[in-house]
Design a protein that fits this description.
Layout lengths: L7 H13 L5 E7 L9 H7 L8 E6 L6 H12 L4 E5 L6 H4 L1 H9 L1 H5 L4 E6 L6 H9 L17 E5 L3 E5 L11 H10 L9 H15 L1 H7 L9 H11 L11 H13 L11 H31 L1
Parallel strand pairs: 1-2, 1-4, 2-3, 4-6
Antiparallel strand pairs: 5-6
Helix pairs in contact: 8-9, 9-10, 9-11, 9-12, 11-12
Length: 310
């Protein structure tokens, strides 16, 4: 599934971010703990080394209360194995004292500012719908950032002074122009990072059910009161539809209706604590992506070569 969703304000936001970066001490990237890789913007890694000045990055894995705790810990270790990266596992619904760890870590990563008694300047970033605005509101103790269940709520930069000597520069939730990893497209869609108006519910629900059948079969059986799981995804989806009463005239299953129910059940976390990717899984996918890009480049070069011969 190819998803290209890059609203105009996101392109503008990237330009504004690059202009503000020279004055920033570190980056804070808010991730969805259920999809730590897919919700990590590759553009942010590039921004961390903007103009050759490497900046520390705090990876905040938000929504950890919705994710598989075992996989969340594996992702934390994975991120902290990278240079200049500190990873935190939090939930936007945590108490302010728990979320204040972000401020504490930011101060540790910019000791010169602390010594000079100057505020640490941190730019907080994240793709849409990862809970960035909720975290900002909790840290500031008041409603500053606009919160919503729809992606792309924040559309301009904001400056927020926090207690503890940290100044946050908030940015709109930005996606990147092209999602090379098809699996990431599905996971972003399932988690709600992409507007539902551009989605095919059937396609992403079948992807989710197929993944759950392989990795969390007991969750499916328990949630939908299934006595058996089927080898074919379509049979499993139809069984869920019958259990939930998603039937058309004649007894046929309404696939569109049951697929929306399955996606909404995942987003509401009624299926339990589930993560949709592992570091090892992503590593294999990136090999496939690199090969796809290489083959595409070769084909483009071959086409150009044929044109020159004509």
């Amino acid at each position: 599934m190819a998803i290209q969703w890059y609203p105009g304000h996101m392109h503008k936001a990237q330009k504004e971010i690059k202009q503000a970066l020279p004055k920033i001490d570190l980056l804070i990237e808010v991730l969805d703990a259920r999809i730590p890789y897919s919700s990590s913007n590759p553009v942010i890694a590039e921004l961390g080394e903007f103009r050759g000045l490497e900046r520390p990055i705090i990876k905040v894995m938000n929504k950890c209360d919705l994710a598989d705790p075992i996989l969340t810990e594996r992702w934390r270790v994975y991120f902290e194995s990278q240079q200049d990266v500190k990873a935190l596992t939090l939930s936007a619904h945590d108490r302010p004292a728990e979320l204040s760890k972000i401020v504490d870590v930011a101060r540790k990563l910019a000791p010169l500012r602390v010594v000079k008694n100057e505020p640490v300047r941190a730019m907080i970033m994240g793709i849409p719908n990862v809970g960035k605005s909720t975290i900002i509101n909790v840290l500031s103790g008041r409603k500053i950032a606009k919160v919503g269940n729809e992606p792309a709520v924040t559309q301009r930069q904001q400056r927020i002074d926090l207690a503890g000597g940290v100044t946050l520069f908030d940015t709109p939730g930005i996606l990147w122009p092209k999602i090379e990893n098809t699996h990431s497209s599905f996971r972003l869609a399932i988690s709600g990072a992409i507007k539902d108006t551009v989605l095919d519910y059937d396609e992403i629900a079948f992807y989710l059910v197929d993944y759950l059948q392989e990795n969390y079969p007991e969750r499916l059986a328990h949630k939908y009161l299934l006595n058996e799981l089927f080898s074919q995804t379509i049979d499993l989806v139809e069984a869920i539809g019958k259990k939930r009463g998603c039937l058309k005239v004649g007894g046929r299953v309404d696939l569109d209706k049951v697929c929306k129910i399955i996606i909404n059940d995942f987003r509401a976390s009624t299926l339990g604590e589930i993560s949709l990717e592992t570091p090892e899984m992503v590593k294999n996918e990136l090999v496939e992506v690199a090969e796809k890009i290489r083959m595409k480049a070769e084909n483009n070069a071959l086409r150009k070569k044929k044109k020159r011969r004509r």
